[in-house]
Specification:
The chain is of the alpha+beta class. It has helices at about 5, 15-20, 20-30, 50-60, 75-85, 90-95, 105-115, 120-125, 125-140, 150-155, 155-165, 175-185, 190-210, 220-230, 235-265, 270-275, 280-290, 325, 365-385, and strands at about 35-40, 40-45, 60-65, 145-150, 300-305, 305-310, 310-315, 320, 390, 410-415. The protein has a domain at about 85-295 and about 340-415: Cytochrome P450 (Cytochrome p450, Orthogonal Bundle). A hairpin with a 2-residue loop joins strand 1 and strand 2 (about 40-45). Bound molecules: protoporphyrin IX containing FE.
């Protein structure tokens, strides 16, 4: 171990990490562009400024799997094994798209890319609108003492239902999937082992059903893609892909929808603009991803060769953690970075945010998440014109997760529902 590693310390206090990751990583960003700290017990380079984060994400010399290092073993799989995850279940975690590098990553991503094309996502819009309306219809019925938790009854059920329908998971099982997704993020070996063996058996069962009766869904699409050329998608890869998609959708979009509602409710001027002109919603969603997007840090990267960032030499094999949450508030890129301003001029003062990452691992579900969030906001704010937080802002609780910013609950008072015109305002019409 190098001398500098022996004095390596965590860069953020536990409080900053759990309660104020934007502030904590913002402080790190202003102290130095590239700095080493302990992360998950391992010396790691932190990269927090916009240009450097973008450069690392675009640079193929940074891999997301340590097996891409010369002579590298799978460190992630090893950590999972040490945690107590059964060896035969580890591939379902370690084989996830985001932890693979080319050529496997290119092959796997190509297989699912078509299902997430702009055309396919756009075709889903009426279904997303109908689901949002159903959830809104049911909201008053969930009110207890006049308040409703929008995480539980609005932000969470929408994305899981949409992704289940896309993938071909029976919607009746979506509560089971929500429970499995919680197990996935629990980092509890017992729960993870149970969840992984249940889920793999479940998905293999669905594959068997689709083999007997193909359907217009992603499971059938992936299965056929594999069957055409037998070595393209193994059964384990197929299970892993389905698992990845459902869990990814269930973890992040609910967080954006809930944070976005909170942000707009606490910035009444911004909310008034959106209500006045729903055509502003696509820009508003992008600004919310910048300002309070859920992805604080990206996945860990490994330097596959020596690379210099700024004045710092990053050695082959070093761990590198880029922090989109800090880059998105970098004053070198965004004037008034801590101000929420949905009217930022894309040409003048709004660089593309990094809330969906950049480069090879750019979020596959970005278009889907944008659409769900736009529709959710358009319909919610139209339906409940007096919607308000039910508790003071400082009483809201965030989940104790350092990588993803997520409200634990969002209690609101709905107020009376508006009598809607026949054709309700549609987000994105001006796009
Ligand atoms: C607001 C919602 C979402 C946010 C903020 C988000 C964020 C991200 C980020 C930051 C990454 C890249 C991580 C890295 O480079 O290390 C990523 C990758 C990914 N996301 Fe999302 N995501 C969202 C929604 C979704 C949805 C709805 C799906 C699935 C339908 C999805 C599927 C994926 C997949 C499969 C990858 C891996 C892509 C690859 O490695 O090629 N995401 N997401």
């Amino acid at each position: 171990m190098a001398a500098e590693d022996t004095v390596c310390r965590p860069l953020l206090s536990a409080h900053e990490l759990m309660e104020d990751p934007y502030g904590g990583f913002g402080r790190v960003r202003e102290e130095a562009p590239v700095v080493k700290g302990l992360w998950n017990g391992h010396p790691t380079w932190f990269i927090t400024r916009y240009d450097d984060v973008t450069a690392v994400l675009m640079d193929r010399r940074f891999a997301t799997s340590s097996t891409s290092l010369p002579g590298g073993t799978d460190e992630y799989a090893e950590v999972m094994a040490q945690m107590g995850i059964d060896r035969d279940l580890i591939p379902y975690l370690a084989g996830s798209l985001v932890y693979t590098d080319p050529p496997d990553h290119t092959r796997l991503r190509k297989l699912v890319l078509r299902a997430f094309s702009a055309r396919r996502i756009s075709a889903l819009r009426p279904r997303v609108e109908a689901l949002v309306d159903e959830l809104l219809d049911a909201l008053p019925g969930h009110a207890a003492d006049g308040t409703v938790d929008l995480v539980e009854h609005f932000a969470s059920p929408l994305p899981i239902t949409v992704i289940c329908e896309m993938v071909g998971v029976p919607v009746a099982d979506r509560e089971q999937w929500r429970a499995w997704s919680l197990d996935y993020t629990s980092m509890d070996a017992r729960r993870l082992n149970t969840m992984l063996s249940e889920i793999s058996a479940y998905i293999r069962g669905l594959v068997g059903q689709r083999r007997a009766a193909p359907a217009d869904d992603l499971i059938t699409g992936l299965m056929l893609a594999r069957d055409e050329d037998n070595d393209r998608l193994t059964e384990t890869e197929l299970v892993t892909m389905v698992l990845t998609l459902v869990v990814a959708a269930n973890e992040t979009t609910p967080a954006l929808i809930a944070s976005g509602i909170w942000a707009l409710l606490t910035h009444p001027g911004q909310l008034a603009m959106v209500r006045e002109d729903p055509g502003l919603l696509p820009d508003a969603v992008q600004e919310l991803l910048r300002w309070c997007g859920p992805a604080i840090v990206a996945k860990l990267r490994y330097a596959t060769e020596d690379v210099v960032i700024g004045d710092t030499l990053i050695r082959q094999g070093d761990h590198v953690q880029v922090v989109p949450g800090a880059a998105n508030h970098d004053p070198r890129r965004f004037p008034r970075p801590d101000e929420l301003d949905i009217t930022r001029d894309p040409e003048a003062d709004r660089a593309p945010h990094l809330g969906y990452s950049r480069g090879a691992h750019y979020c596959l579900g970005a278009g889907l998440a944008n659409q769900e969030t736009e529709v959710a906001f358009a319909r919610l704010f139209e339906r409940f014109p007096d919607l308000a937080l039910a508790v003071p802002e400082d009483r809201l609780k965030w989940k104790p997760m350092p990588a993803t910013r997520q409200l634990a609950s969002l209690p609101v008072v709905l107020g009376p529902a508006a009598r809607l015109r026949k054709t309700s305002a549609r987000a994105g019409e001006r796009r």
